[in-house]
């Protein structure tokens, strides 16, 4: 996200804009976006039935 756009968004939320914080906010937003990338790429996560392997001893003595 561009710094100009970040400033606008912060002002819309009534958050004071501190120029020296903008690079840190930008880095944080990039990190969040990178963390979400695998989830966005795998849109069929809820369509597959998960495979669960259970140790028989756990069931027997639970």
Explain what you see.
The chain has a domain at 1-30. Helix content is 56%, strand content 0%. The chain has helices at residues 3-12, 22-41, 56-60. The chain is mostly helical.
Descriptive labels:
single chain; 62 residues; mainly alpha
Helix % is 55-70%
| Large-scale geometry | elongated
Sequence stretches where pLDDT stays below 50 over 5 or more residues = none
> What's the β-strand tally?
0
Count of discrete alpha- or pi-helical segments spanning 4 or more residues: 3
The proportion of residues in beta strands is: under 5%
The profile of the biggest β sheet is: none
The oligomeric status of these chains comes to single chain
Order of helices and strands: HHH
Mean pLDDT across all amino acids: 82
Radius of gyration: 22 Å
- Distance from first to last alpha carbon: 51 Å
Structural class label: mainly alpha
